[in-house]
Structure formats: structure tokens, C-alpha cells
Amino acid sequence: MNLSVHWRWIIELILILYLSFRLFSITKGTSLYSVLKFLMVFFIIAGLANFSGLKELNFIWKVILVAYIGGAFIVFQPELRRLYVNRAYHRPDSTSRFFFHSEEDRTKFIDEITIACQTLSRKKVGALVVLERNNDLRDFLQTGIAIDAVFSSELVYSIFLTESPLHDGAVIVKENRIIAAGCILPLAEKTEVKKLVGTRHRAGIGITEQTDALSLVVSETTGKVSIAVQGKMAWDVETSTLKKMLRILYRKL
Ligand SMILES: Nc1ncnc2c1ncn2[C@@H]1O[C@H](COP(=O)(O)OP(=O)(O)OP(=O)(O)O)[C@@H](O)[C@H]1O
């Protein structure tokens, strides 16, 4: 009898640790991460209160915990929705490694976007281009203007010219089509990023923290080209490096 209770405890503990680990890794880099860390402390204190038989403390912690979870659900509704949509409906599809008609089309697109970055960089035209991979970016498309045109360096260049009404915000690309421009992206939350860079770069990193997209940023101030993936940015990349990185990264996972 005692032994089975013992095993149940161990299994429960392993399950809790596994679920916590999954939750922490899914939310890493988002504002939900710090909420979860705070909740973890609550759980540990509640568990200790329960274990030591302190009924009043146990009750108080439970009330605070319920209020906190309720509040977090309201405050973080957009983030939770995005996590749910991206995880539930956009699982990696192993059958479609290439999402272009052919590898040749993919190479052609990578050449074209590299030329676009070179031109924007040379003329110091600030730009932010997001490349969709597995995760659906429709939440962000809705913040901009729908376009749906074949990607070309000339088109991207003209979108980001300051005279263009669409130059503010990001261009979103799916395969070799520009599907929207003027899109507003989430800003990176990490304090070290906040301190170091302006909003264009923060938005470029922010979208890669919340989705598996790639983002390319051309700085208006320096003309430098940077590429971000999974919340990390490779700064000031040369054209040949950019091309190599895109060849590796711009494919379905
Ligand atoms: N949330 C956002 N989503 C998409 N684009 C944004 C967002 N916030 C700002 N931007 C873009 O960033 C531009 C301002 O960039 P800012 O100069 O602040 O950033 P930066 O990182 O220093 O870039 P740069 O080196 O080009 O100056 C805006 O004009 C707008 O186009």
C-alpha cells in the first residue's frame, strides 16, 4: 500500500517536472516565461504548506494562486492564443521540406532577396522583411496591408523608400510572394536587446521569439544587414554569409 503511494508520488513528480520543462521551453523568451517562473514559486510554497499541514497558509496561497492564474489568462490572452494557434495547428510537416515548387525556385528567391538586401544596404534604406516558415503569421498580416505579389528586389526597395506609404513596419513573405507590408510585429522583450537596439531591430528579433519565422533587418542608420532566428540576431552579415544562412534556414522544419 505504502509502496504504491510512494510510486504515485514519484510518477506525479516526474510528470510535473516534464510539463514544467515543456512549458518553460515553449514560452522561453516571451513575457509568459516570467509569469511561469513566478507561478513555480507559488506552487513550491503551496506544496510546502500542504506538506507541513499549515492549513491557513495553504488556503491563503490557493486563493492568491487562483487570482493570479485568472489575471494572467486575461492579461496574456493574445500571447496564449498565439502559442495555441502556432503549436496546435502548425506542427512541422516532415513531408514538405521544400515549400517552393522546386529547389531551383528556392535558390532563385534566395538570390533575389540577397540582391534586395544589398541594394537597401547600399542606399541605407531601412527595411524589415519576415520570412514565414512553419508557423502561420496571419495574426501579424492583419496588422498591415495585404499585397500578394511575386517577390522582387525592385518591389521591396520601392516599399521601403521613405516616400512609400507602406515603408513603416514589416514586409511578410511566404515562399516567393510578398503577402503583406506595413505589418506591426511584437517587440523583443529581453532587457539587453531593449538597451542595445532601436525598434526596427527589436521587432525583427521579437517575431522570431514568438514564431519560427526568419527576419532580415537593414539598418537605416548604418546600412548593415542582420538576420534573426529563434530570438537571436546575427549582426552585420556579409552577402555571402547571408546567402549561406538563407540556404540552410529558409525551408520548412
Ligand atoms: N513593432 C514594429 N513592427 C514593425 N516595424 C516596426 C515596429 N516598430 C518600429 N518599426 C519600424 O522601425 C522603424 C523605426 O526604427 P528605429 O530607428 O527606431 O529602429 P532601429 O532598430 O534603430 O533601426 P535603424 O538602424 O534602421 O534606425 C519604424 O519606422 C518602423 O518602420
TrEMBL record:
UniProt cross-references to Pfam families, sorted A to Z: DAC
Assembly description: Probably a homodimer.
UniProt keyword terms in alphabetical order: ATP-binding, Cell membrane, Membrane, Nucleotide-binding, Nucleotidyltransferase, Transferase, Transmembrane, Transmembrane helix
Transmembrane segments: 6-24, 36-53, 59-76
PROSITE patterns on file: DAC
Source organism per UniProt: Atribacter laminatus
Known catalytic reactions: 2 ATP = 3',3'-c-di-AMP + 2 diphosphate
Function: Catalyzes the condensation of 2 ATP molecules into cyclic di-AMP (c-di-AMP), a second messenger used to regulate differing processes in different bacteria.
Domain DAC: 77-239
Coiled-coil positions: none
Top-level lineage group: Bacteria
GO molecular function, one term: adenylate cyclase activity
Annotated InterPro entries: C-di-AMP_synthase (IPR014046), CdaA (IPR034701), DisA (IPR050338), DNA_integrity_DisA_N_sf (IPR036888), DNA_integrity_scan_DisA_N (IPR003390)
UniProt-listed PANTHER family: DIADENYLATE CYCLASE (PTHR34185)
Gene Ontology biological process: cAMP biosynthetic process
EC nos: 2.7.7.85
Family named by the database record: Belongs to the adenylate cyclase family. DacA/CdaA subfamily.
Name of the featured protein: Diadenylate cyclase
Gene name in the database record: cdaA
